[in-house]
Amino acid sequence: MGSAVAAARYDSVAMTLHWAIALLIGLDFALGLSFSHFNPGDALYLRSAYDLHMSTGACVLALSLARVLWRLSHRHPPLPQMAVALRVLARMSHFLLYVFMVLAPLTGWLVLSLRHQATSIFGQFSWAWPSLPAIATMARADRARYHDALLPLHVWLSYLGMSLVALHVVAALYHQFWRRDALLLRMLPRVAVLSGGARRASPPAGRGMGASLKLLVLAVLVFPAIAHADTFRIDPNHTHPLFEVDHFDGLSTWRGLFKATTGTITLDRARGTGTVDIVVEVSSIDLGHDKLNQLVVGPKIGDWNGLDTGRFPTAEYRGSAASCRAHRPPPAAS
Predict the structure, then answer these.
(1) 74, 78, 117, 157: which one has the fewest Cβ atoms less than 10 Å from its Cβ?
(2) Are 250 and 207 contained in the same domain?
(3) Average pLDDT of the segment spanning 83-98
(4) Phi and psi at residue 41, in whole multiples of 5°?
(5) Position 334 in a domain
């Protein structure tokens, strides 16, 4: 059976893409759960989860497109002998997995585009959207309508896709340990132990290097929309967000500021886009009255809700600039 397994293996590029996408999808789903199901102060809440989710999703989309192109242009090993129903189920699940790998991050990207929010990839690159005229010139009411339809679709695609991933894992284990047809070994590095105890020889270095170069060229072709963006850090000593609050229905106006603010601004000068990411320490509020400052940070101010900094220590703002003229960003639009 060893020679049969060796002859029915995926190539190194397909293996690399498969496992890289699998790890990124698992990480991206966990990040999505962190910022969507947990609040600041919870053990499983990660403040940078939102940005990491967008960056990881962009990588999943690029690698998934590369995986589809690679599969269409290269031969892949046939399925082992099995019942017709199992064969049909396997082909359907593989097709749906490819649909999930592309559509889930793509709908997320469309959601950001409808918000006119550029995607920063790990703080180093800025994704070029929204550059489609249909989105860039769309009225705000239309963008809101499409956004409200696409966001739930993105969420449901993610849950359904992860269910497919779980089914895929169970099926692989079933083939490996129940049917014992060595199906799992087709997608693992060539280190299977032979019956005599010796390890199978690794492929020559030249073959691995050639596959890596092919993967690099393919990634460059699939991922051309990434451009370098300048990142500027907010100076907390010179940044103090101001606010006004109506008091007793027009009787007076409370005015104040926050003393502790951090964040970044990215500016892609080549494409004329930018992003704003601000984090405010809510407990640094200053209304010019020490007693009032102590009251507003608590859970209650008489019959009204307070800021409750014990549960919500920070306030975060994320926005984007749809266009930057003369290398200067306009006011950020959420």
Answers:
(1) 78
(2) no
(3) 86
(4) 105, -20
(5) no
